[in-house]
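Help needed: design a sequence for this.
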């Protein structure tokens, strides 16, 4: 691979593997560095040996665009704001409700103010 460029790094090797699948699925060949199977979910590697994803120089702009896109979709689906707008939790019984319910179907308590 001529003049590889690092496009992604993360302490979670599962995430790095996910991004590699994403890129290779789009036809961008990747090289993994500092990859270890030990760094799974919640088991973070030290910062100086984080798994890294490298691509050929010519593929870097495309890889970065794909990663940006993926990152935005992850942030939208996991941000607290997105979660709040989708539903609410009853303060009395803890039941989870979709946003279109105004009262708890379980105990009748009204939806708390945001
Ligand atoms: Zn309730």
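Sure. Designed sequence:
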């Amino acid at each position: 691979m001529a003049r590889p460029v690092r496009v992604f790094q993360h302490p979670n090797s599962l995430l790095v593997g996910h991004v590699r699948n994403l890129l290779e699925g789009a036809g961008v060949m990747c090289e993994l560095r500092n990859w270890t199977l030990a760094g799974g979910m919640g088991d973070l590697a030290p910062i100086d040996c984080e798994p890294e994803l490298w691509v050929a120089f010519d593929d870097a702009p495309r890889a970065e665009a794909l990663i940006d896109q993926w990152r935005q979709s992850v942030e939208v689906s996991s941000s607290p704001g997105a979660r709040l707008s989708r539903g609410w939790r009853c303060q009395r019984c803890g039941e989870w409700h979709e946003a279109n319910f105004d009262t708890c179907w379980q105990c009748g308590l009204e939806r708390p103010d945001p």
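The chain is about 35% helix and 20% strand.
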